Amino acid sequence: MSASDRRLTLVRDGIADRRLEGLVPAERFADVTPMQVSAPIASLRKAPEPDAEQEDQLVFGELFDVLFEVGDFAFGQARRDRYVGYVLSEALSAPVLPPDCRIAVPRTYAFAEPDIKSAIVGLYSLNALVSIEAREGRFVKGARAGWFVDHHLAPIGGGFETDYVAVAERFLHAPYQWGGRESLGLDCSALVQQALYACGRACPRDTDLQRDFFPEIAEAERRRGDLVFWKGHVAILLDPDTILHANAHHMATAIEPLAEAVARIAATPTGGVLGYRRV
């Protein structure tokens, strides 16, 4: 756990996670309360306000360690990628239910009954975590959710994808959303993270963290599946000369020639390529 990175350090307003005692200055230290996301998606915000900047999202079933509550929000840390921020308390539930399955498609509906003609109770994104309460025919009942079509789920510890690039390609044309991880809209680093999660692989949340996480390669060595980084941006190589990335230029997940992206981005404050990494 970093004791210097605000994004990853569970301390705010003079209150810190007890596990950080001796590592960070704080007026007091407190134990966290484990909670679980019970909404299909939950925004993690920079401040405890509904219109505050969204810095990340948590998908259904992910764990969130709550340090304190303020108004309608809980301040805490996402267990999966360790990101810190404010989440609406109504999007969280306790006790924590161990998941049996995960959503293995970009998005799927949960229904009120084990019937596709019944009311839709939510739209759930890739890598959401589901605790199964019941089974009926080709449906499974998710705790705190609804009835899912069973072939849209995979066991929590298996059935992983093997080609993360192919997973990422399923998000082609999805709108760009700052801080988004959901299948309806996500940002550049979330595209990488979500695709790798679907393969059972760990991945940090932000581009600088990803750049530090993966091993560096020379530009001439680049191939399908490698990552190319700019300041605050990342793209996936489909081949040595073509990239896939969620980006604010297209305001979508798009495919384009690497050379075109490099030239366009170089003309902005983002600047030139910082390097290439092997996943």
Automatic annotation (TrEMBL):
Specify the enzyme's EC class, one word. hydrolase
Q: Is the keyword Ligase in the record?
A: no
What is the E.C. number? 3.4.19.11
Spell out the InterPro entries in the cross-references.
NLP_P60_dom, Papain-like_cys_pep_sf, PG_Endopeptidase_C40, SH3_16
Q: What Gene Ontology molecular function terms does this protein carry?
A: cysteine-type peptidase activity
Q: Which family does it belong to?
A: Belongs to the peptidase C40 family.
Q: What is this protein called?
A: NlpC/P60 family protein
Q: Where is the NlpC/P60 domain?
A: 158-279
* Native source species: Caulobacter vibrioides (strain NA1000 / CB15N) (Caulobacter crescentus)
Q: Which PROSITE patterns match?
A: NLPC_P60 (PS51935)
Q: Name one GO biological process term.
A: proteolysis
Keywords from UniProt, A to Z, are: Hydrolase, Protease, Thiol protease
